[in-house]
User: What shape does this take?
Amino acid sequence: MRKTISNQFFLHYLVVFVLVAVATVSAYFFLIIANHLAEDTFTKNRYPASAMMRDDYRFIDPAPILKNGGSLQIVDKDYRVVVAEGKDALPKRQLTPAEFTEFLVESKSKDRTLSHDILYNPQGEFWLIITFPTSFRIDFEVKMNPKAATGNFPRVAFIFGLTIAIYLLLLTALTIVYSRITGSRITESLRKLRDGTRLLREGDYSARVDLRLTNEFAELQDTFNDMASRIEEEIDLRKKSEGDRRQLILDISHDLKNPMASIEGYAERLLHAATMSEEERRGCLEVIQKNSQRANRLLTELFELSQMDSPEFSLHLEATDLCEVLRQICGELVQELERAGFDYEFAIPEEPVWAWLDIDRFGRVVHNLADNAVRYNPRGTTVSVSLTVTDDQAMIHFSDNGIGIPTRLKGDIFKPFVRADYARTFETGGSGLGLAIAKRITEAHGGDVVLCSSSGKGSTFRMTIPTI
Ligand code: ADP
Assistant: This one.
């Protein structure tokens, strides 16, 4: 027999059923023994024949015996019932000696519903028979009297054997059915869990199990489903980051290709041109310089971004007055903004607002935002910086009323290499990494930076930094 759960169930139930049968048979035998031990105490005759006996039976008073539910008979020497009071213990009025002897023999048997107390009076030559019903009896015995038994013994043995065989067959059939029914509930749940696990192993991470149970299997199901969804999330994340990584490599190679090709082209021209005017030569060198600066900036920012992604990256945090730092940075920006023909408005409170800051990195974020405002917007644009404080955070709004960023890019603009206008970005020498770096830095401060404005109305970036 295969060691499946349903087979094991069957075996267990069979053992239990057999044990129950053994226990039942044992209980039967124990009760027989108990019956024998207790039997004597069941009969209580308060009127023994010895106490009631008189030499003349007419003086024997049957009243108390009758009152207590007993009966009294007197049998004379000719086996004639001369007095019969109460329920008859003897079948006839006139008995033969054999019948009376049989009665005497039978009266000693404990298997009767009546108990007899019989005494012979030699003077009066009569038997006094006092009979009381046995108060309580328990009979569990199968009796066989081999001398009296007549009949076909092999047939009886066959009938009993058949009965036992049918009983055993029924027992086995019931055990099989019952074990299958109870076993199937467990095996069904296990099968569903096994199928789920198989699907998971085969790469179907959307596999979930629904057992519709509330027992321990439901806990297992919840754990399984929880595990499956975590794996699914993990795999999705891995796929996404794999995709992001591939995209990043594509973007890097794409962005490096143009300046490198340009540098190569102009360098070759310089090398191989037979004659070249001083002006032309200078032009070539300027292009080479511009493109190498561009490539250099791209690589520097890329290095910076990967540093921030590495687990070793940490900030040099100091408890700092945010307002003071922001005022200093804005002071540095004034010159740049004026040179670019920009207007500016700063609204920074006088009272200190304390936060844990890496001053250099924080400055880098504000400079990135300011550089972008200057690079992508026309002269006459107004740049405004304001700081407000809520319960536990400082909010810095950095906005301009320039060309704005398309709303469709709102979620993606902080991703590396995402630009609103590629041609213009190329012209301005942007790497598409500035906002990604800004986001990483603010996140490392426990804050965030988001784009709030919609296109056409300029751009507003909201930076939040937790206060102390
Ligand atoms: P880049 O190095 O190209 O400037 P960023 O990540 O700093 O990269 O900016 C991403 C893109 O967002 C830019 O290419 C530009 O198209 C757009 N952008 C950022 N700031 C502004 C702004 N203030 N006004 C208009 N467009 C902006």
About this structure: The CA atoms of residues 338 and 344 lie 9 Å apart.
